[in-house]
Description:
A: alpha+beta, two-stranded antiparallel ribbon, 9 strands, B: 5-stranded parallel beta sheet
Amino acid sequence: MICPGIDVPQWIFFSEQVPPLLYYSHIPSILVSLLLGFFIFFKTKKTLASKLLLGISLSFFLWAILSLIVWTSNRSDVIIFSWSFFGVLCTLISILSFYFAYVFLVGKDMPLWGKVSMGVLLLPVILLTPTSQNLSVFDSFLCGINDEGFYFTNYYYGIGLVAFFSILVLAWLMYRKRYGESRIQLLLFTFGIELFLLSFFIAGFLASYLVDNGLLSDYSFEQYGLFGMTFFMAFLAYLIVRYKAFDIHLLGTQSLVVSLIFLIGSQFFFVKTRTNFILTAITFILVVMAGFILVRSYKRDQERKEQLQQMSDSLSLSNDKLRKLDAAKSEFISIASHQLRTPLTAIKGYLSLIMEGSYGKVDGVILDVLNKIYISNERLVQLVENLLNISRIESGRMQYRFEPMQIESLLEELYDTFALIAKNKKLRLVLNLPEQSLPVLSLDRQKIQEAISNLIDNAIKYTNEGSVTVSAKDMGTVVTVTIEDTGIGIPSEEIPFLFAKFSRGKDVGRLHANGTGLGLYVVKNIVEAHQGRIWIDSDGAGKGSRFVIEFPKEVSSRE
Amino acid sequence: MPKILLVEDDPMISDIYQRKFSSGGFEVVTAASGKEVLEKALHQSFDLILLDLLLPEMNGMEVLEHLRKDDGYSPDLKIVIFSNLSEYEDRNKAVELGANGFIPKTDYTPSQLVDEVRRFLYQAEERKKNLERKNASGQILSDAPRKSILLIEDEEVFAEMFGGRLEQSGYEVVHAANGSAGLAMALERHFDLIITDMVMPGMTGQEVINALRIREDKKDIPIFVFSASLVEDDLERMRCEGAEKCFMKTRITPSDLASEVDKLLKPEA
């Protein structure tokens, strides 16, 4: 039977007589829910949650289509037929929503009894659909239903309410078991799905209630409820992008661009004039193209970022390995040195006892030979000491004992030590100290002596003729000690490398006249541990060099 | 104070040697030529002569020969060749002529030279003592009861080496192979001195010291600490927690240890 006053709709449900809000509310929601439903379904390779979501989307889709038909059709039989399914679909949506929420929040499938009870709840609706409990009176004038079955409608509204509250309870139970980000995800999801259910049912229920009581003119109010679906999908989309829900890795840009396209596409429903239509179409096409380019370039950026991240990760991994190797090496040197001390001590001890005649008289050549062995062994002991020192410095375990002292006495002692050696090499060793006493400095005597001794030794070593001058000066805020030589000099490009670790392999463990064999690397460490600075000046090869150390003065003696 | 004669013509260097040897507890006289050496050695009594072979006027070997063969020079005089000898024959010849030792000039700083000389003289002393001991082995031992030393050391080698030498000096030495055995022994009987290693399996030396220090009857026993693994690298500045003295095994000979023990337990000697 044809409803009076209503035109035949085109394309099943497009009609001029209906406010565009109908299409605007229904169609985008359908499209969004189907799009996301299928997207998640295929992306997650058909997990239970995605199947349920797809179920919700499809049920919603069916419901919305039927709703459109009901609103626009002019044939009463079509209207009645379509309308009758609302009950089933609404219940289905409620139950599926609850099931979906359960799987999403709890993380596993519902126990059998849960599924059975859900089926049980659904049953009455299915059974009663073709009965008069569903639709009792059809008004052929308005082509509308006046009286839906009281118990029937309240039943499925009730289910909807039950679903709503059950999800809340579930969410609250799960909230306490989760922490941090997980909680936020839970809240977002719950809010989204509850909003959907709420808007969907309350809108419908409220609209009926208000119209029945004459407070509202038509049912179109209930159409706003459909936006709940869009919001729900938006929440899900956000969860996917931000928290990789459903384990989907989706670029924010992509989803934003898609949403933008959607929004512009939906404009078509509001287009009244041809001009508007063309303009909207052009905008739509431009947005699609721009979006495509944007997404592509963003993807490329992401890839590059990921590459960089990988490289930096592998770099830091290599760094870690290097550090571990370095530590292992220091550890090894330390252990080896300790182990070596035992046999060295035994040799030293017994040799000395033999030479002292504890085991019988020794003299002459034998005594001399034993002495040679003894001296060699002492060298070994020194070498082990050097290695231990170096490993201690490298592992940062070098301990310093600072005491106030005059650096002059230290320099004088060093002068005594090296004067002879310099003379043997036919070099002049000069000590230049100022007339006035230098201020008191806070130094670790032994370490500084070793450091400066190392420098003087180097100077003598690398000078073939001329002199080596050791001088100290008060320079206001600092005291400088300079070791200058007329030796072979240093080319400027090599200067930065001299203080580096292992720059000259021969420096490591090299036996030094004063016993520690510390390389320049260790000298620098020692100076810096005194809050001092050290640097080298050289005019180049063959032009000598100058090592300068700066010591900060004691705070009290500063002007 | 032991007296040294050495050859050095550079007054500046000679000055350095003077200072170093004086602060090392020696008296030093320098000579500028071979003749001066022979002259001074004749009229003064030296413990040791540091003889350079490269001398003006007279060859060092000749000086050596004179010092050994001529009258007026004590056979006890130690002559150490202080020169850069490279020829093996020279060395052998020097030994034949009666040199007691060799110190290369370039390898030692003045301070090290002083240490070497000191070691040399010390060894000679010990040799003499040992010889006397051997000759006197038939004599009756003194009536004084032997002082007892507890040696706590996990390395067998060191227990024998150091313990043996201490016994040679006339002490009774009891050896414990680890910290807990040592502590038990220390509590069981009286010792005049306890020498303990620091790093041992099980109870460490420090724990033994601590355990003894809290006991009334044991807290006054002197303790020497022996170590092969020091955290601080300078021996003099090491804080020996609760111990009289601390030694590093690699820097002390058994006889050195014996001297230190003597200083403590036989101050009258």
